[in-house]
Every structure is written in C-alpha cells, then in structure tokens.
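Quick check before the chapter quiz. The format below is the same one you will see on the exam, so make sure you can read both the input and the output lines.
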Amino acid sequence: MNTEEAKGSRKNSSPFSHPIFRPPCADLPLQNPQRGLCDACGFAPSDQLNLSRIWARILRSYSFASPKVDCGRAKAAMSRQWFIIVFSVLHVICILLIDDIATARQASKTLTRFHDPVIVNTSLLRELPTRETARYRLYSAHQGVLSPIPFQFDERDDTGEIVFPGKDDTGDFTFDDDDELVFMAKDLGDRIPPSLLPGKRNGAFEIEVTDPVNESQGWAYLLHFSESPPPLSPVTYATFDSEANQARALFYTMDYFPGWNFFTAMRIHAIAGGTGENILNRMKLRIQPTFSLGLTTWSPLFTEQDMTVKIDGVKNGHVRAIRRVRQSLDLGRYLPSIPNGTTYTYFYFSSFITPSKFKIPWLVLKLLREFRFTGVSDFRQNAIGMKYWDAPNSQGLTFTGSHETNVNTKEDHDWYVVSGKAGTHLQAFIIPEEWKQWGIVRGTVFLDDDLALQGDGPEDEPGTHAAGYSLLNMANIREPGEYDMTMAVIVLSHPYSPGDEKEPLAMLKQPLVPNVQRIP
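Here is the expected output.
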C-alpha cells in the first residue's frame, strides 16, 4: 500500500464516521417537504449532515505531532477544536433526547382488565375549553389508527346523587367538579404522539389508566370540537327498559318482578358463552331479626316481597344504564324501617353492580338480639349439571338434585361462581371492614334438592337448586350508623377455571386509576 492509499485508509476509518454520529432521522423522508424540515429533530437535511463535517474537520486539523507550530497559535487552535468537540457532543445529546421524547409519547397498551369501567371525576378536566358535554368525543388508538369508543358523562348533585335527565332531554349538560366521565377499560388503546390526533380539535386530554395491581396501562383521548364534531361510536352496551322491567346488556338479560326489586330471569347470551335460556326462578331474601321487648321477644320473618320499593330514576347511556330505587323494610307501627336508603344498580356490558347503604338506627341496635339473613339465586331445573365454586369450597359442588353434598357453610368468603352449558357468572358480596373485624361472616348457601317443597312464594318448578350467602353473627354489630355494601354479578365469557375470580374482584377492591394530562 502506498502513502496516499494509507492516508485514505486512515481517513475512511475515522471513528466519527460511525452511524452513531448521524442524527436518527437522517435517512428518513421529510415529514414537511414544503418547509424542508424534519419533524423529528427540526433541522434541514443539510444541517443534519453538518455534524459529520465538523468531526471530519477536527480530524484533519487536529495534530499533536508538529514541533514547528507556534505555541500561542496552537493553544488558540486547540481551544477552537475543543469548543467544536463540546458543541458537537451537545448536538448529539439534543438529537438523542428529541428521539427519546418522541419514543416516550408512544407505548403499547398493556392493561388486560376486561370487565372494569373507568370512572374519571370531572374535577380532573378543568383545563378543557368548555364544560358543555355535547361536542366531546373519546378515542383510542390501535396500531396508530384512532377509533371512537363509547363513553358518557353522568351528572351528580352536591350530595353525590345521580341527576336523571328529563323524558325529552338529550342527556347533555354542563359539568362541574362533581360529575363523571365513564368508559370501559377494554376499549383503551395505545399511547400515540399528538401529531396523530385530528387537527380540527380545539381541546384535547390524554387519559392514562393504570392497574394498581401490576402497573399495566392503557390510554384514551378526549377531544373537543368547536363545530361539526365527528360521529359518536354507534355502540351501546346496556339499557334498562322501565316498561318491561328488564335490563339488556351485551352479555346478559335480567328481568325484575313487576313492582319489586328482585330478579325473576337471567339469560347469558351466546356472545358470552351462554345459550340464552333462562336459568333463574327468582332471587330470594330471608331476613329474620329477633328483638327484645321487655319480658318477651319478637322475631318477624321478612322476604323479598316485604321490601317497600320506589323506582325514582332511570338513565340509559352508551356505557351503562342506571336504575335508582328507594327501599325500606317495614317493621311495623312502632319501629323504624330497616334498611332505609337509596340503592343504585349500574348495568355494564358484562356486569351489574349494586352498591347500597344499610342503615341501623340506634333503637334497632339496642333492641336487636339476633339477626338472620339469607340471600340466594334460586335456579331452574336446567341448573342440573352446573357447578358451584367459592373460596371455602374450591373443589367445586355439582348441582345433581340429590342433596348429598358436603358443604362448608360457615367460613367467610366474598365470591362464588356458577358455571355450566347455559353460561358462567360470578357473584361478589362486599361488606364493611368493621363487620369483618366484629366477626360477621358471609357463609355459603348451597341448596340442591329435587324433592324440596317451597311454601314461600310462587315457583315455576318444584325443587330447590340455589346458591347464595348468609350473614352470620350480625348481632355483633357494635355501632349504629350507615354502612356501605356492594353486590355484583359478573358474566364470564368462558367456563370457570380456578383463578378466574381474581380480575372481577380486583375491579371491586382495587379499581383502575385514571390520570389526565392536557395536550397542547
């Protein structure tokens, strides 16, 4: 190799010719050809290549070997060269930071919660351009494509009660800090950069939703349009028909007995792994308090038909249907009614949830000596062959009609599952933490007898095939007051396997956490 070839070889093998010193967008087409700039770094292509030229110039001029160079001029040259080196390194860092920021704005959805609603308090939406709900749209992204998803705004008053729209209202209103934006976790998508959002919007929020159990995440985008907003999602997940006393959702249909607050039919749809046939005779309640009245005691027996119920509100939205009733248990002329308060039922696509308040007045607690409570789902004959699970009876119990099953009835548990060819559903019962500390137990009720005769109300079929809860040791309640309880039914779209209860229970005990950030 001659001298010139050696020089050329050393020049071409410069470490600064490595691709790491080229901007990451140097080989990409321009995103804004009219401006001649790159969106990723903000420089023209010619500027992007200046870094490589600077490094080449440094290498050509930089030398420690020449003894003939004047010391003052050498020091000045060295200062200039170090300035260029530092400037170039900072330029590289800036480009890499820009690339990191662009990458950070994109992330794939990792959240796997399926049944959960996401409820965003509107106090988090203060920076939106308007509080009129009519022109908002909610989107999620999958593989860079935005699609509208179902959502609704629900209004609450200063006491937390739902404000139900009038008969002819559109459902739109001006929200304040007490209201709710509601959508489903399963509809969340990926995180995307703002450049992929519609340009005609005049306000935008990124809603990041986190699972507190495993820190997985998903995203949605709430946009406002000052005029001509795009179409809403055509999907409606659940409705309540007041005339038919029926809730219809994507996964199920539930019928109420006219004039009361208990179910008389449950159908799990084919989309959720069911057959669509009714598996329920009715829901049953048996409440028997024992009161001390001087020298005697009084033990009245109340059923689901002794509850005084008044329906005073129904709302149908795209995500959930809401039904509100006011109910009380009439104990007679001389005693207050129990429980006494408002009960809501929220119907979602795969579940319905009934949070309720149980009021125990001071006088009732003072006179109470014993309290028996049983609530069950009494199934039809087609329950034969279905199987029951709960935490104390994890081996499973099969409905056979033979009444020969060994059941653990007195160990506390908060869920059970019934699964078979007609479908699978989980029922959860959440009680106050104080009750558990006082020794109150949610016991297992499993009844399976083809020959049982019932004298407690009309039945379509003989026999008893039922599952539910009892409340044991209720006389241990130490303080009067108002206590929160929650009943929930979640339809599972496949036959039950051990562990399937974890996600529905997380929905009730560890709800998803939304975080809202305004997008400029």
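If your answer matched, good. Residues 6-52, 61-69, 94-103 have pLDDT under 50 and may be disordered.
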